[in-house]
Amino acid sequence: MPLRQPKPPLAAGHARRVLFAPVPVAPTKPLTLSHVKGLLWSDLVHRATGLLHHVDLLHSWTVGVRNAQTLGFWNHLDRTRPGADYSTCDEEEIGALYVEYQRTRTAGDVSASDGALHPAGARILELWATRLRDMGIAEGGLRTPTEPPIGLDGLVAMLVDLRLAVDHRRWGGPVHLDATRAGMPLRPLVAADGTANYLASVLRELVPRVRAYDDVVLACDRDSLPDYILVRHVLRRLGARVGLIGLGRVRTAGTRGRIPSSRHGGWQGLTAADLAERHLDRVGPAVYRLGLRLYFTGTLGHGDGRPHRPDLLDRCMGRAARVLKEQGPRADTAEALRAHARPHAYVDPYRLTTALLAQHRKAGADSNLLDEVYL
C-alpha cells in the first residue's frame, strides 16, 4: 500500500506556515511501543495540520544521530567488536548491544567519532524504514544527513546577546542555558570539555528557522518536557508562536511509577516489528494502519495511565475493519479539522480520532479524512 504524498491545504486562503519539529529517535535500538505512539501522533499532527496549513516537518539528523549517546555507542562497538558485520542483524540484536553499552559507558566514548553513520546505525535505519512503511509513515529526513543552519559558537553568542545563556568557556568552564528570570533552573548546554548536549543541537536546528514561520509546533515525550519548555521559552523570546505537545510513554505490564527509558531494555517482544508480525498479514495494510492509530491515539491518549493491552489493540483492529467497510460520504473535512485545532495551530490527534469514531457510529466516517490522514 503506497504512502500518500502531502496535498496543498484545503483552505489555502487561511493557511499559515507551520514548522513541526518532533523530537527524533536515536537509531540504536528497536522502535518500542512508546516510539510507535510518538511516531503515530506525529504523523497525524503532520498530515491533519497539513490539510489546514503549509507544514514543514523537521527531522534533525544532528539530534537523532549525532548525539553523545549514539556516537559513544558506535565507538564502543568499534572497540569491542572491530570489523563486525551488522547487515543481517535485527533491531533487537543491536538494541541488546546498546543496553549493554549503557551499563558500561564512559565519558570518553565520543571523542574518537567523526559523526559518520556507523554500519550498526545504517542497519537500524534500514529496518526502521520498513517499520515506518508498514505503519504508513513517510520517512521524512530519517536517512538524509543534514547540518544545522547555525554553528555552536553562533548559537551561544545569540543566546548570550538575548541574556539566555551564561558562557564560561573562556575560563575553561561550561555553557548554561539561563531562563532563571522566567523561574526555570539553569540547564547545562555545553560541558567544560566542550561537549554539547542534545538540547544545544535542538536549538541549533530551530533558532535560525523560526522567523520564517507563523507557528512552531514541538513534540516530545513527557520525560523531555522540562527541556522542551526551555526550548519553547527561547523561541518565544525570538518572537515565535510555539505549541508544545508532551506525550506519555506506553506503560507495559508490571511497570509502576516512572516508565523507564528504552535504553534500559525491557522492550523484548514489544516492538514495531512484533506488532507487524502479529497483525499485518492477518488484517492487511489499511486495517493495520488505521487500527494502530485508533489504539495509540484514541485508546491510549496523551498520557501514560493506561497500560498496553494486546486485547484492546485486537479490538481496535476489528473496529478499524468496520470503519473502513462502513465509510460515510466525504464531509467538510477542513471545518472538522479546524474544530480539533482550536486554540492551537495544530490538529489534536486524540480529539480527531475520538470524533472520527463518533462520526462512524452515527453515519460512517468521513472517507476523505480516512484517506488523507489515517491511511
Rough shape? globular
Computed over alpha carbons, the radius of gyration is 21 Å
* Main beta sheet strand tally, sense and closure: 4 strands, parallel
Q: Beta-strand level of the residues, as a percent range?
A: 5-15%
N→C terminal distance: 9 Å
Note the total helix count.
Answer: 14
Q: What is the residue-mean pLDDT, rounded to a whole number?
A: 88
Quick description:
The protein has 375 residues and is α/β, with parallel strands linked by helices. It has helices at residues 33-49, 61-64, 68-80, 91-104, 119-135, 152-161, 198-206, 225-237, 272-283, 285-299, 310-325, 333-339, 349-363, 367-374, and strands at 17-22, 54-57, 165-167, 175-177, 187-190, 215-221, 242-247. It has a domain at 12-259: Rossmann fold, CATH 3.40.50.620.
Q: Your description of this structure?
A:
The protein has 375 residues and is α/β, with parallel strands linked by helices. The chain is globular and about 70 Å long. The chain is built from 14 helices and 7 strands. A 4-stranded parallel beta sheet has the order 2-1-6-7, with helices on both faces. Strands 3-4-5 form a 3-stranded antiparallel beta sheet. The chain has a domain at 12-259: Rossmann fold. 45% of the residues lie in helices and 9% in strands.
Short key terms for the protein model shown above:
375 residues, alpha/beta, Rossmann fold, 4-stranded parallel sheet, 3-stranded antiparallel sheet, 45% helix, 9% strand
